[in-house]
Amino acid sequence: EKGGYEHFMMKEIHEQPKAVEDTLNSIIKDNQIVLDLEGLDISNLSQIHFVACGSAWHVSMACQYIFEDLTHIPVRVELASEFRYRNPLLSKKDLVIVISQSGETADSLAALRLAKEKGIPTLAIVNVLGSSIAREADYVLYTLAGPEISVATTKAYSAQLVLGYVLAIYFGKEKGLLEEEKVRYYLSELNTLPKKIERVLEDKERLQWFASKYSNAKDVFFIGRGIDYAISLEGSLKLKEISYIHSEAYAAGELKHGAISLIEDGTLLIGVCTQSQLYEKTISNMVECKSRGAYLMAVAPYGYYQIEDTANFTTYIPRIDEHFIGSLAVIPLQLLAYYLSVSKGLDVDKPRNLAKSVTVE
Ligand code: F6R
């Protein structure tokens, strides 16, 4: 049942190329995006509210940057557990997008119902067919990740991300912001993702080796800017939930407003450096931490070799259009969390205190 892998999580990590490919194939036919959103007035949307919990909230954070860039629609990203108790300001021209693997998360479902009560159009991105959120939303788009057993999500997260990308491209096109040629370019870039994820997975032994050195780490920091910040949030959650190592994700520039006081000799700091407009800024934050004793790991695209002047250990990922590179940057972070959990002898697939589906608030 684990397909030769020791844990479901590792099996599911390796199923990511397929989860991404199947999800893309379900909504891209003959180089055209095919989505059933009949009746949704995309060109007049005034705001998009992404509402989710946990990793699905991290997907929403990544989507924020991509949607605003490709659609020029203002985006808010909301934790479902906050949104539902806040009497949120919503207009009939808004769209509420709920992202959920299980489709049963209590807070996400309550947030969806709240939006519906107020007469706001709702769209759900869900993995489990016929789940409550899928049934109740006005529009549903399914991730085709297949059943996910491991409590820590990997392949559903990756499938949610690509659905988000395609939706952003579609909205941008419907609003007349993206020409045919640009759409074709984005779709052809997206089609390279499955192979490139496989390529990242080939480097797993290096991460296993690195994890074996760091299994006694007490605190780990993840930093990045823009999409890299969204990926840092996910890397940090993966690590803490399955390896029980305390970790924090910070928008790189925010570190010096408090948390940098926690950096001491040997603290592991992981910089996600994939965005060409931003990575030099993140590197300068990494340098500041190194001078305070931090040990630096970097995730960067092939070709950014100057990062080795700063980082002690670098994992390279293939290049792709920068909107989509988070899908590659997250893979080494999943692997690192996995190997740290294994090297500590923990129950990778069923971490303590956690449930796969959080159906109570
Ligand atoms: C983390 C994880 C959780 C879920 C969260 C939402 O690895 O799996 O943070 O992302 O509980 O669950 P769904 O997506 O089912 O609504």
Task: Provide an overview of this structure.
It is globular, with a radius of gyration of 20 Å. The chain is an alpha/beta fold and about 350 residues long. Helix 7 runs antiparallel to helix 8. The longest helix has 20 residues, at about 155-175. It is built from 13 helices and twelve strands. The chain has helices spanning about 10-15, 15-25, 55-70, 80-85, 105-115, 130-135, 155-175, 180-190, 195-200, 205-215, 225-245, 280-290, 325-345, and strands spanning about 30, 30-35, 45-50, 75-80, 95-100, 120-125, 140, 220-225, 245-250, 270, 295-300, 315. The protein starts with 7 loop residues before the first helix and ends in an 18-residue tail after the last helix. The strands form three sheets. A five-stranded parallel beta sheet has the order 4-3-5-6-7, with helices on both faces. Helix content is about 45%, strand content about 15%. The structure holds fructose -6-phosphate. Fructose -6-phosphate binds near residues 100, 241, 357 and 358.
Labels describing this entry:
alpha/beta, binds fructose -6-phosphate, five-stranded parallel sheet, 361 residues, single chain, 12 strands
> Regions with pLDDT < 50 over 5+ consecutive residues?
none
Bound ligands, named by name, code or SMILES: fructose -6-phosphate
**Multimeric state:** single chain
Largest sheet: 5 strands, parallel
Percent helix range: 40-55%
Count of DSSP strands:
12
